[in-house]
């Protein structure tokens, strides 16, 4: 059975990175795609671990050669999902998670309607601000800009298949696992199995 392609998007500070890390620790049926980007590595980030860090020229070359499933510009930098790894993992029956922003998410959904779009949000706006401030990685101006962007992004939540509330972390991770497990058993994803059962039953006809 082919794996399920899942996209997790959400406001900056919602807890995407935290939820992904815990999901990978807790369940072994997921592969997390590593994106390519032209932004500079942050302290502690390693090429090939958080991202594949590229020059603009290298990134545009990947676009031209059709090596990306989707790409978008976000705050002045390119971000994109390399195709080869994702397709290989799906073919091997692994569920693949892309943690990407919404323009890219909507591109993938259009090309591959079977993709499951999940939007992660904290329980309320105050908690979003607390988390952004608590993380301590951005200055006040950047935090305000990210909160403004969150207000804009909230218009797009309706385009997602599922809303995932990140209040209690363990519950959130288990809810995400539950969504993906259910998706895997959708009849549309199991054509060949249905055909086999039908064929097997035909001898009683
Ligand atoms: P994102 O990747 O969406 O920008 P992060 O994973 O960096 O968000 O999380 C933002 C901050 O919120 C971090 O300091 C993280 O420790 C905290 N956080 C994440 N999930 C929870 C949670 N369920 N409850 C409380 N704090 C959380
Ligand atoms: P950051 O620079 O904070 O790591 O990421 C900025 C934003 O880019 C986040 O919303 C993240 O989800 C998104 N992002 C990361 N990789 C990709 C990608 O491959 N494609 C798209 N469209 N967005 C991405």
Structural features:
5-stranded parallel sheet, binds adenosine-5'-diphosphate, binds guanosine-5'-monophosphate, 205 residues, alpha/beta, 4-stranded mixed sheet
What's this, in brief?
The chain has 205 residues and is of the alpha/beta class.
The percentage helix is 40-55%
Distance between the termini: 28 Å
Shape, per Cα inertia axes: globular
Per DSSP, the total helix count is 8
Helix and strand string, N-terminal first? EHEEEHEEHEHEHHEHH
| Biggest sheet details | 5 strands, parallel
Bound molecules: adenosine-5'-diphosphate, guanosine-5'-monophosphate
Structural class: alpha/beta
Strand order of the largest sheet: 2-7-1-8-9
The counted number of beta strands is 9
**Low-confidence spans: pLDDT under 50, at least 5 residues?**
none
Give me the Rg, rounded: 19 Å
Mean pLDDT: 95
């Amino acid at each position: 059975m082919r794996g399920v392609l899942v996209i997790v998007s959400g406001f900056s500070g919602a807890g995407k990175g935290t939820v992904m890390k815990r999901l990978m620790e807790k369940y072994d049926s997921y592969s997390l795609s590593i994106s390519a980007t032209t932004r500079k590595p942050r302290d502690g980030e390693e090429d090939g671990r958080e991202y594949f860090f590229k020059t603009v020229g290298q990134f545009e070359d990947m676009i031209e050669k059709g090596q990306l499933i989707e790409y978008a510009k976000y705050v002045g930098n390119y971000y994109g999902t390399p195709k080869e790894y994702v397709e290989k993992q799906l073919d091997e029956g692994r569920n693949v998670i892309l943690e990407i922003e919404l323009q890219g998410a909507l591109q993938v959904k259009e090309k591959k309607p079977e993709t499951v779009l999940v939007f992660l949000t904290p329980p309320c706006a105050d908690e979003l601000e607390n988390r952004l401030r608590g993380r301590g990685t951005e200055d006040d101006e950047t935090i305000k800009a990210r909160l403004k962007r969150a207000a804009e992004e909230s218009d797009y939540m309706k385009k997602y298949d599922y809303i995932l509330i990140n209040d209690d972390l363990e519950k959130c991770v288990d809810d995400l696992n539950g969504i993906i497990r259910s998706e895997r058993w959708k009849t549309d994803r199991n054509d060949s199995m249905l055909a086999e059962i039908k064929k097997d039953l035909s001898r009683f006809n």
